[in-house]
UniProtKB/TrEMBL annotation:
It is found in: Membrane. Pfam families: Lectin_leg-like. The chain crosses the membrane at residues 293-317. This is L-type lectin-like domain-containing protein. It comes from Penicillium bovifimosum. The keyword Transmembrane helix applies.
């Protein structure tokens, strides 16, 4: 029996993502999802990514960016997670940069949460007739009067509907907003997508002032068709045509969100007139959440304590056994 090495213990500890207060609502806690996050140097020691695949014209510069397309015509590049995103509630924050040398530029990039994975195609570098959610950052205006570009829009694909390329997705739009200044912005440009199952889908953008978010849209699940697959792969893709741009991904951060109080999102009147919860399902959950993490940490420490104790016990027994021979 061998005692686990220090490096293996550190690796194990690195996989334990403790709750944080990253989400703005104090009643909501977040847990980082390493399986769906990217940051420099992006690649492992063997120049591979453990959790993502890359394809098409994508180029990885480990100290700066993942370039989906260079500022050259007729390029397509993509990134796709190797495992599906199965969290019920989540937040994805993406830092990106769209820039190039020409006065004319295109076409744009997309963020995906779909059943399909790593399939190159004609919709911003990914497949058409997809099933799931696509968020399109469109920088070139084909035929959409009255709309300023860049334009950011959401489309919910059913696996059968074709993207309305000729009219910049007008026939498919679930929600969207104009974002003039998104391309070549003087500050880090970011997008933050937040999803609560059966409740809401919100997209916020940072491109005007650093640390200041502009709401692009917020959809209520009761009044909108938000049908994100329960098992969906996270992906990014980009495309250039006759016009081109650099489409760079700087970082990608995904987090699992959960509520400490199930009544937190029901409004201030949720518990008025009630002296106690009407059923066990309505009881406050905060003590249970804290206790569960404490208990998990205790069990983890106890587990390693048992291994260490067994190792030293066995070592002492082996030493005595050897000495008894003489």
């Amino acid at each position: 029996m061998r005692l686990p090495s220090i490096s293996s213990l550190l690796c194990f500890a690195g996989l334990l993502a403790l709750p944080t207060n990253a989400y703005e609502d104090p009643n909501i806690k977040s847990i980082p999802l390493r399986t769906h996050s990217l940051s420099p140097p992006y690649l492992d020691s063997d120049f591979q990514s453990r959790w993502f695949d890359f394809g098409g014209d994508t180029v990885v510069r480990a100290d700066k960016y993942i370039r989906l397309t260079a500022d050259r015509p007729s390029q397509q590049g993509w990134i796709a997670s190797r495992v599906p995103l199965t969290a019920t509630n989540w937040q994805i924050e993406l830092e990106f940069e769209i820039h190039g040398n020409g006065n004319l530029h295109g076409d744009g990039f997309a963020l995906w949460l779909t059943k399909e994975r790593a399939t190159q195609g004609p919709v911003f570098g990914s497949t058409d007739k997809f099933e799931g959610l696509g968020i399109f950052f469109d920088t070139y205006k084909n035929n959409r009067p009255g709309v300023s570009f860049p334009y950011v829009m959401a489309m919910m694909g059913d696996g059968k509907t074709t993207y309305d390329q000729a009219h910049d997705g007008k026939a498919n739009e679930l929600a969207g907003c104009s974002a003039r200044g998104l391309r070549s912005a003087p500050i880090p440009t970011k997008a933050r997508l937040t999803y609560f199952q059966d409740k809401s889908l919100t997209l916020e953008l940072q491109y005007k002032t650093e640390d200041s978010w502009t709401e692009c849209f917020k959809l209520d699940a009761e009044n909108s068709n938000i049908a994100i697959p329960s098992v969906a792969y996270l992906g990014l893709s980009a495309e250039t045509g006759e016009l081109s741009d650099n489409h760079d991904i700087i970082s990608l951060k995904a987090e699992n969100l959960y509520s400490l109080n199930r009544n937190a999102n029901k409004g201030p009147s949720a518990n008025q007139g009630k002296s106690r919860p009407s059923s066990p399902a309505q009881a406050p959950k905060e003590p249970k959440q804290k206790g569960s993490w404490t208990w998990f940490l205790f069990k983890t420490i106890l587990f390693f304590g048992v291994i260490v104790g067994a190792y030293f016990g066995w070592t002492i027994y082996r030493t005595k056994a050897r000495s008894s021979r003489f």
